Amino acid sequence: MMRSHRCGDLRTTDEGAPVALCGWVHTRRDHGGVIFIDLRDVAGLVQVVFNFSEAPALQGAAEGLRSEFCVRVEGEVRRRKEGTTNEALATGEIEVAATSLEVLSVSATPPFQVDEHHDVEEMLRLKYRYLDLRRTRMQSNLQLRHAIVSSIRRFYDAHGFTEVETPMLTRATPEGARDYLVPARLHPGSFYALPQSPQLFKQLLMVAGLDRYYQIVRCFRDEDLRADRQPDFTQLDVEMSFVDREDVLAVTEAMFKQVWAEVLGAELQDFVRLTFAESMARFGTDKPDLRFGMELTDLSGALQQTEFRVFQAGKEEGGAVKAIVLGSQGGMPRKQIDALVEEAKALGAGGLVWIAVADEGLRSPVEKFLSEDEHRELPRAAAAKAGDLILIVADGHAEVVDRVLGSMRNRLGKHLGLVPERARADPEAWKFAWIVDFPWFERDEAAGAWTAIHHPFTGITPDTVDYLESAPEKVLSKAYDITLNGWELASGSIRIHDRALQERVLAALGISKEEAQARFGFLLDAFAFGPPPHGGIAPGIDRIVALAAGEDNIREVIAFPKTQSAADPLTGAPAPVDADQLEALHLALKPPGPT
Asked: For the segment 346-356, what is each residue's pLDDT rounded down to a tens digit?
């Protein structure tokens, strides 16, 4: 071994020990006759001292050291002198007096400092990702990811699950996003698809009698990116036979409790459970952040006789009038309030009504349109007190009201500091929730068709299955999501395992029997051979790790991520390919048309 210890592992108990260390020069300080460097490896930093009066042969090499040189040092561990300890470092009570120095490789001047105290533009970080990953924060994130995945595997191994790999090159299936397609050289004109998930394969494994399956698997979705999405991502894929919803929820909840206890030291309580309708009504979203209040309140009861046209529109059939209350913000400057109005419009609302509550009454641009009863009842209905600011959205479509206020609630909750800072081990830092009883269908107004909220293989509750052909909007699914602190961590469902019902569902989605057989025949045919009832779930590994690490973007917990435009600055992907490669694949490029 080139080293006897890791830099960050040394302590006062090693005093007097001879050591050999390998790592990178983090910082260098020349004090004239004595040079100090902080030597860094995966375990942390340690101070190394080159004292030329003690080791004159090291002077030339030590004076030539620069940031990010890779070196090997031999020396002796000693306590630092009184008054020179560094409490910010785990190794801050000791240092290594160097007796030997070997430069293993030199470094060009880095494009940015590998230092936690310097912000670097993200494109530059991704272009030089191998340098970015040297940072303590990034090393910690990847180590946390490893610990979480290891804990997950231990859990499922202990509970009788078998890990099975499923194909990366498969057939396109509808799962809510565009597929990444791979041309098949041996089958001109035909394409594989990279899997959006192993959905059909894990159902086939249940038909095969595997009983309990899991996999840590790469998935691919060509969709618009955001903080919690990447084109290629990793999910925990789980499927179980002979189960109902409660069985899947119980196993999944137990897994999260074990992981949080083992890795973060947090003893989680039982998860909150909300129906989809309740979550939308109270929080305006199906992935609520439960760490703070400021819930949406329905004002329709206080506006029964309103003559204000804006509120009347929200009371029409299918509409809503709701509010959120910003505590102690009644004195918010008008400029900031106007910005909130514009934010609501940008989110799809026709406008935003604001009302400041004071002891002497209400202050609002619309106060003259409100009756005396409404002046009295609105603050009561909104649970607002003197000094608060009420934000009201009214619209003929209730989903618009929920979406706008839900989005504003999340942003303002963080902006106003309503989410308390808590340690990882504090159970109150983690607000898990199950969301159940989803509608099966949603209306795509642009296409004039019904689409699946989850995927076409999701089960239907027995009491709503008869609405499939007559009233799809009334059909409830056997789907469930798990959310944490405002992020969706997982979706799952009890699946359809009856061919006739599956064909009815596909028909409701506008897919004929012939098309269904062509696209999903391998699954439908398998249902002829005694398929068991089955269900599962697929938590996102990147999202789990990002939340556990306290990151706002999953790129920070992925070793080599893509940018918001799905590009990789490090490798230059995506990139053109040679003409002979296209010819071998029987492909020709069409010139881009006008944009």
From this structure: 999 999 999 99
Look-up of token digits 């009863």: 373
- CATH level 2 (architecture), domain 7-105: Beta Barrel (2.40)
Q: Which residues pair with 22 in a beta bridge?
A: 72
* Maximum CA extent, the chain: 92
Q: What is the DSSP letter of 222?
A: B
| DSSP structural state of residue 477 | B
pLDDT above 70 (res 157) = yes
Looking at 3.20.20.10, 1.20.58.100, 3.30.1360.30, 3.40.640.10, the CATH number of the domain 292-415 comes to: 3.30.1360.30
CB 313 within 8 A of CB 301: no
Whether the predicted pLDDT of 547 surpasses 60: yes
Decide if pLDDT at 593 tops 80.
no
Residue with tokens 């005694």: 530
Q: What are phi and psi of 32, to 5 degrees?
A: 70, 100
Please, which pLDDT band fits residue 176 given cuts at 50, 70 and 90?
low
SS3 for 136-158, per residue?
HHHHHHHHHHHHHHHHHHHHHHH
DSSP assignment of 344-388 equals HHHTT-S--EEEEEETTEEE-TTGGGS-HHHHHHHHHHHT--TT-
What pLDDT shows up at residue 137? 94
Domain boundary assignment for the chain: 7-105, 140-274+426-557, 292-415
DSSP state letter for 553:
S
129-135: long-range contacts, CB 8 A cutoff, minimum separation 24? 129/559, 129/560, 129/570, 130/570, 131/68, 133/559, 134/24, 134/40, 134/68
Cα angle at 172 between 169 and 174, to 5 degrees? Answer: 140
When pLDDT is averaged across residues 363-374 and rounded to a whole number, the result is 94
**pLDDT score for 175:** 64
Return the bridge partners of 96, or none.
Answer: 48, 77
Fold of 140-274+426-557: BirA Bifunctional Protein; domain 2 (3.30.930)
Query: What's the whole-number average pLDDT of the chain?
Result: 95
Give the pLDDT score at 595.
56
Give residue-wise pLDDT tens across range 486-531.
999 999 999 999 999 999 999 999 999 999 998 889 999 999 999 9
**Spatial separation of the C-alpha atoms in residues 58 and 48, rounded to whole Å:** 12
Encoding tokens for residue 362? 């209400």
Q: Which of 170-184, 422-436, 553-567 has the lowest mean pLDDT?
A: 170-184
Answer whether 140-274+426-557 and 292-415 agree in fold: no
